[in-house]
Design brief:
This protein starts with a helix and ends in a 14-residue tail after the last strand. Strand 2 and strand 3 form a beta hairpin. The protein has a single domain (about 5-335), classed as 4-Layer Sandwich (Metallo-beta-lactamase, Chain A), CATH 3.60.15.10. The strands form three sheets. It has a nine-stranded mixed beta sheet, with helices on one face. It has an eight-stranded mixed beta sheet with strand order 8-7-10-11-13-14-15-16, with helices on one face. Helix 1 (about 5-10) packs parallel to helix 2 (about 60-70). The chain has six helices and 19 strands. By secondary structure, the chain is an alpha/beta fold. The relative contact order is 0.13.
């Protein structure tokens, strides 16, 4: 994913709110950003994490939407800016006022201490906000406070070395999942995270490619089951059967856009997963025709619209959660699961 302009515009918007009072929900806002997916996360401790963004095109409109969301959520700083892989700085304006950033988090590049190459953007963020530079590797945890845990499961081409307490089962879907052509791009080095809050679990692998998913899931599923699977839209390179069918997500959130949407094969794999109650999309996809889009009620931005809508996920510690579509004001609730345990492993 390209990560720059949306972040710059976010920082350029004044944000309100002085309170950092604790609430009891984990809230995630998902926005379509020029064919990518960006997420603004607010934890029960009111720490804020921004994951990825975009540059150019709809990315600029998405930046304004993220800024508006941050303002309504009374966010006053970004505690952690998570960049999933090395990207192009794009055509971001250089004269801007920035929201303070506590730390820029990214994968170590080839074992070096630098998070990412020194783009003008990164230099400006670090200089203007005094942001720390944190490198992470698989098995590390984002240093967020409280009961929310975000485990790094992939970074710089490396993968989680051993199963999480939620994983460890033999994956019976591996044999039926063929390898794809090796992808040597930066996307194969994407930083993926597994989020855990009480009985709620979410997987966000960013742009991690098909073969890397297989390595993570085969022959043993190192992650376990999830409630929510956040899916990158890159055609034919994401959401392998070994991943989707063994993680048994209750919903999927697709970062589609009209021209760069998920391929029919990706959508078919999701649609055939019996555990899925709903496929949510950030934008209707022009790839594969109408049969490869979820019902309009679950799409944030339809083809004939200019965008500007988001999906809001609110997760409770007991594993129940709800998704809100800002376009049509639809909210769908998902009850606490019966079969999931409450995992309280040592996280730090």
């Amino acid at each position: 994913m390209r990560v720059v302009s949306i972040l710059l515009l976010l920082f350029a918007t004044p944000l309100l709110g002085k309170s950092r009072s604790k609430h009891r929900d984990l809230v995630m806002y998902f926005v379509e950003a020029d064919g990518s997916q960006t997420a603004l996360v607010v934890t029960p401790e009111n720490e804020t994490i921004l994951i990825d963004g975009s540059s150019g095109g709809r990315g600029f409109r998405a930046a304004g939407l993220i800024a508006a969301i941050a303002k309504s959520a009374k966010v006053e700083k970004i505690d952690y800016l998570v960049l999933t892989h090395e990207g192009d700085a794009g055509d971001a304006p250089q004269s801007i006022a920035m929201l303070p950033v506590g730390a820029i988090v990214g994968p170590a590049r080839n074992g070096k201490t630098a998070v990412l190459r020194q783009t003008n953007f990164l230099r400006q963020v670090s200089t203007s906000s005094g942001a720390q530079r944190l490198t992470v590797k698989p098995g590390d945890h984002l240093p967020i406070a409280g009961d929310v845990d975000a485990v790094v499961v992939s970074a710089d081409g490396n993968l989680l070395p051993r199963p999480l307490p939620t994983g460890g089962n033999v994956n019976t879907f591996c044999r039926a999942t063929p390898d794809r052509q090796t992808d040597s791009s930066e996307q194969a080095r994407a930083l993926g995270t597994y989020w855990h809050y009480g009985r709620f679990r979410l997987m966000n692998l960013g742009d991690l490619t098909w073969n890397k998913e297989e390595e993570l899931m085969c022959p043993v599923n190192r992650l376990g089951k999830v409630d929510v699977l956040a899916v990158s839209p890159e055609p034919s390179q994401r959401s392998s059967a070994a991943l989707v069918h063994d993680m048994t997500p209750r919903i999927a959130i697709l970062g589609d856009d009209a021209h760069n949407g998920s391929s029919p094969s990706t959508y078919d794999i999701l649609e055939t997963e019996g555990s899925l109650k709903t496929i949510w999309q950030l934008r209707s996809s022009g790839v594969g025709g109408r049969d490869h889009n979820t019902p309009d009620s679950y799409i944030a931005n339809l083809d004939n619209e200019h965008g500007g809508y988001y999906l809001k996920l609110t997760a409770h510690e007991n594993g129940a959660f709800e998704v809100y579509n800002s376009r049509n004001k639809l909210t769908r609730k998902y009850e606490a699961p019966y079969g999931f345990g409450s995992y309280k492993w040592e996280t730090r």
